[in-house]
Amino acid sequence: MSRTTSELSLKEACEYLLGRDQILILTHAQPDGDTIGSGYALALALKALHKQVAVRCADPIPHKFTFISLSLEPEEFEPQTIVAVDVADCKLLGSLCEEYKDVVDLCIDHHVSNVRYAKRLLLDANASATCEIIYGMLKIFETPLNRHILSALYTGIVTDTGCFKYSNTTAKTHRIAAELIDAGVDYAEINRVMFDTKSRERVKIEGAVMDNMDFYFGGRVAVIAITRKLLIQTGANDSDLDGINALSRTIEGVMVGVTLREKKDGKIKISLRTNAPIDATSICHRFGGGGHPRAAGCEFTCPIEEVTEQLLPVIRESLEENGCLI
Amino acid sequence: MSRTTSELSLKEACEYLLGRDQILILTHAQPDGDTIGSGYALALALKALHKQVAVRCADPIPHKFTFISLSLEPEEFEPQTIVAVDVADCKLLGSLCEEYKDVVDLCIDHHVSNVRYAKRLLLDANASATCEIIYGMLKIFETPLNRHILSALYTGIVTDTGCFKYSNTTAKTHRIAAELIDAGVDYAEINRVMFDTKSRERVKIEGAVMDNMDFYFGGRVAVIAITRKLLIQTGANDSDLDGINALSRTIEGVMVGVTLREKKDGKIKISLRTNAPIDATSICHRFGGGGHPRAAGCEFTCPIEEVTEQLLPVIRESLEENGCLI
Predict the structure, then answer these.
(1) What own/partner pairs with CB < 8 Å and gap ≥ 24 does A141-146 have?
(2) pLDDT digits (tens, 9 = 90+) for B133-152
(3) Confidence (pLDDT) at B3
């Protein structure tokens, strides 16, 4: 099916939403801070404009983000307008994909890889987070920034930028943060919950993972394997694994951090994090995956032991091409 | 000895330095990113004003900060002006204290606890880092912000704020960060080195520590023990332990994180990190120590096994007093 997606400017997207009602906002499955923050900040702003609005997500909202989702009273209505936030591909809607893949009226996103599945698209690939774009919309709406909206926006920005740490952070990101702080966001508490709070199970699995990390090519590649067995042993669940993909790349000398994760259905999900100049996307692309230059993913259906056999030669090639092998 | 410290405004401090030459800048001992960043950013700015300038520190500059200190060519001269940066008390000059304690002409600092040992003081307790104050001075000096100065200032700010995570971060901090990014600071690389680079030894000891953490009082207290044996097993050294004291407090439900560290001389160094309302200082004070409300320390001379026996009842008392026992 071919579709024509019309690209909207920030102002046009705002005008479109101002003319609509009964708005259902969709976040991506396995929701993170940015999709949740974007969804609820936008919903609360539209609510303040006296519209009927609801947010749906295929998966449960992780515990640490419920302070955001609880800010909106659930409401039953027949949606007239479907908006997707931070959803680069309709597949990322998870179990909601079938129902909504052809009927998204507006997608608001910051992923340059957006596949243009929606009827209308507001895309700003320079935004560190979709929440930055939503902040721009709220300025046009002249939405009063209450505590809930501030928390939602700040959470989205800090979770997508690693608290202003990563290269997607811009001067504009900092200027928005300054404005959110001026408006009274409780940033220190949000950051404590987002970055400095670990469950006991997380501590256990992080310890086990660090203890059992494998190194290849003179320490240029570090591999973490999160098996079902390890999850059962440590009692860790999905939300305990949040951010664990970033762990291996942080080790001195490591250019490519690989996290293998055995899923319930036996498939192996690969998450690749690289340091410049290694391109994570091109490696994952070889196995049917994709992503960002420094963070990409793909999936294997073979046993976990065979995954590294297939993956390592391709990583080696990339290290060699970039003169990164010692 | 009584001394009169005159408090200078930002402009007065700049005028003072503009009228001086042969300037020696002192950082505090066991230097961190802020004292080093402040010292070298100021030194490079004064150098650009054609002054003779040098920086001294009682202790070696940690490896991860040498990219800052190497930006200034060493120079021999007879100091006419002594400036201390980020040094709240002349004792913090370490082994340089004796030589300089009575002759500091200007102290530039952001610690509200500054003991006013210098002849002149530029204090801004609202600044997240002394580097914020230095940035203000450089604006008055109209210093061109080259790569070295940008790196020094940004490093000081991010290390003192936990990359904009902690409550000392202000809207102004973010606005300065935006200006440093506009000026071209390589922030992603600096943050990678400061926050996302761990040695393999660090990963090993962190894994072992997490695996072996003990919990008390329904998970309200977490205890980490870093024994000499563990250090030898993992090959970790002092710099690998940097920040490890903060680990236990980050676990959900933990109000008091205790790190026991066996020193070479057999003494046990205790580091206590608490969440509000538990007062770390009052607990450590009972054992002859002290510190800040949320981070304090003390020392024991008994065997490591006996330390918890002495410490836990006092912590329990504090938890009970504050209604934090479940």
Answers:
(1) A141/A14, A141/A18, A141/A45, A141/A48, A141/A49, A143/A44, A143/A45, A143/A48, A143/A49, A144/A48, A145/A180, A145/A183, A146/A44
(2) 999 999 999 999 999 999 99
(3) 66
CB A270 within 8 A of CB A312: no
CA distance B107 to B116: 8
Q: What is the DSSP letter of B222?
A: E
Decide if B198 touches A, using CB distance below 8 A: yes
Q: Which residue has the tokens 């519209």?
A: A51
d(CA B312, CA B326): 16
DSSP class of residue B89 equals S
Question: Do A120 and A204 lie in a common domain?
Answer: no
Residue A146 lies in a domain: yes
B45 within 8 A of B141, measured Cβ to Cβ: yes
Residue A212, both tokens: 């059992």
Those residues whose C-beta lies under 8 Å from the C-beta of residue A194, and which sit 6 or more positions away, are A33, A64, A155, A158, A159, A163
**Domain identity same for A119 and A145:** yes
Residue B309 lies in a domain: yes
Is B218 touching A (CB cutoff 8 A)? no
Tell me the shortest Cα–Cα distance from A67 to chain B, in angstroms. Answer: 16
**pLDDT single digits (tens) B185-198:** 999 999 999 998 88
**pLDDT of A241:** 85
The terminus-to-terminus CA distance of chain A in angstroms comes to: 48
Domain of residue B276 covers 200-321
What backbone torsions phi and psi does residue B261 show, to the nearest 5 degrees? Answer: -130, 120
pLDDT for residue A148 is more than 50: yes
| Structural domain count, chain B | 2
* Residue A164 touches chain B, beta carbons under 8 Å: yes
Model confidence at B109, pLDDT cuts 50, 70, 90, reads: very high
CB A182 to CB B165 under 8 A?
no
Q: Which residues in chain A have Cβ-Cβ distances shorter than 8 Å to B192?
A: 275
Name the residue among B199, B207, B219 with its Cβ closest to that of A207: B207
Query: Which positions in chain B touch A199 (Cβ < 8 Å)?
Result: 251-252
Enter the ipTM: 0.88
We report the CATH number of the domain holding residue A270 as 3.10.310.30
State pLDDT tens for residues A210-230: 888 899 999 999 999 999 999
Task: Tell me whether B203 touches chain A (CB under 8 Å).
Answer: yes
The whole-number average pLDDT for the span A96-101 is 97
Q: Do B196 and A165 touch (CB under 8 A)?
A: yes
Do the Cβ atoms of B208 and A207 come within 8 Å?
Answer: yes
Adjacency order of strands within the sheet including B23-26: B6-7, B120-123, B106-109, B81-85, B23-26, B53-56
pLDDT digits (tens, 9 = 90+) for B201-228: 888 888 888 888 899 999 999 999 999 9
Interface of A with B in 251-310 (CB under 8 A): 251-253, 275
CATH code: domain of residue B156: 3.90.1640.10
Tell me whether residues A211 and B213 touch, CB distance under 8 A: no
Do A238 and A307 fall into the same domain?
yes
Q: A210 and B204: CB-CB below 8 Å?
A: yes
| Calpha distance B84→B42 (Å, rounded) | 11
Instruction: Return residues 122-161 of A near B (CB < 8 Å).
Output: none
- Position B69 in a domain: yes
